[in-house]
Design a protein that fits this description.
Elements: E1 5-7, H1 12-21, E2 26-28, E3 35-39, H2 43-53, E4 62-64, H3 68-74, H4 80-89, E5 94-99, E6 114-118, H5 123-132, E7 136-137, H6 152-158, E8 165-167, E9 179-182, E10 189-192, H7 198-205, E11 210-211, E12 238-241, E13 251-255, E14 267-269, H8 274-289, E15 295-299, H9 307-323
Parallel strand pairs: 1-8, 4-6, 5-9, 10-11, 12-15, 13-14, 13-15
Antiparallel strand pairs: 2-3, 3-7, 4-7, 5-6, 9-10
Helix pairs in contact: 1-5, 8-9
């Protein structure tokens, strides 16, 4: 029976490149979550990503590049604001939405006219892209709608019966998906919150930055992934709580305020600061999901004192809300 192959050591990049060049997939680490990589210019390779994940075809993919020079090959235009943001935040967890070039097949963008592109801040991801010599798509390396992976072991657990090479790059240090900003809108508009917030972006651009309204046209094509409904979900139901008091013995707790379970169930401590909370969240949800608990109760993070910390907290709350939402037929990531 096929099974994933863990790639480590100096040959891991070369084997990953061989997989990409033959039209196959490779899972690779980034600073946010592990991605499922394929040649972004190959319709067949992109189709394989959708098949393996069970991902809806109307959910676009992010294209990963080695820098601004490669980004220009997948975009039809590269405005000054794109260069400003790339200079300030790349490599890093910021995805730019721009008009797409003909180099990118329609399946990558859900037949939309824009493409989402970013340069990841991870030495393995950058080495893979540079050695491959071209852009690669990189949605989260997990079955669609499920909890995102932040270790190679999470990827392997998600695809236990697939012949998928997985490059081990350790735990992802940011831990949640990138901020996505639409640069075709005026003013630029954040489509998905992340570690980099609107205030930080506005400081670089010297102007306002908008946020996407939570309820848009249900029939429209999303410009970025993560906008179609419930996401980031473990198998165990998630509930968001302000306090662990009242937890049942059958509940697992992911909390920052205590190491005590009021009813004696499993407890997993999460750092209270926004960056630490974000980095640990998915990993602890994966761990809690394996306890056989009836529910996972997650304590919301405390209020930070600065705007950048608030941006991270907002991104965490968005992920938690989707993790706790009821699944739908349209959900996927």
């Amino acid at each position: 029976m096929p099974e994933p192959r863990l790639l480590t050591g100096p040959e891991a990049i070369a084997e990953g490149v061989r997989s990409l060049r033959t039209g196959h997939l490779v899972a690779f680490p980034t600073e946010t979550v592990y991605g499922l990589g394929a040649d972004a210019r190959s319709p067949d390779a992109v189709a394989a990503v959708f098949r393996l994940k069970g991902r809806p075809s109307n959910n676009p993919l992010i294209v990963h590049v080695s820098g601004a020079e490669m980004a220009r090959t997948v975009t039809a235009s590269w405005p000054t604001i794109a260069q400003k943001l790339a200079d300030a935040f790349w490599p890093g967890p910021l995805t730019l939405v721009l008009p797409k070039s003909d180099a990118i097949p329609p399946s990558v963008t859900a037949s939309g006219r824009t493409v989402a592109v970013r340069c990841p801040d991870h030495p393995v991801a950058l080495a893979l892209i540079e050695a491959f010599g071209g852009p690669i798509v990189g949605p989260s390396a997990n079955p669609s709608g499920m909890l995102s992976p932040t270790t190679a072991e999470h990827v392997i657990a998600g695809f236990p019966h697939d012949d998928l090479p997985v490059i081990d790059g350790g735990a992802c240090r940011a831990g949640i998906e990138s901020t996505v900003i639409d640069l075709t809108a005026t003013p630029p508009r954040i489509l998905r919150p992340g570690i980099i917030g609107a205030s930080a972006i506005a400081r670089v651009l010297g102007g306002p930055v908008d946020r996407l309204q939570p309820h848009g046209d249900p029939g429209s094509i999303p410009a970025a992934p993560g906008l179609l409904g419930p996401h980031y979900q473990p198998s165990t139901p998630v509930r968001i709580v302000e306090s662990p008091e009242g937890a049942l013995p059958t509940d697992a707790l992911v909390v920052w305020s205590t190491d005590h379970h009021p009813a004696g169930g499993p407890v997993f401590r999460i750092p209270p600061n926004p960056e630490g909370y974000a980095a640990a969240l998915y990993a602890l949800l994966h761990t809690a999901d394996r306890t056989g608990s009836a529910r996972i109760l997650v304590e919301i993070p405390p209020q930070p004192v600065d705007t950048d910390g608030q941006a991270v907290r907002d991104a965490i709350l968005e992920r938690l809300a989707r993790a706790a939402a009821a699944p739908t037929a349209q959900s996927g990531q």
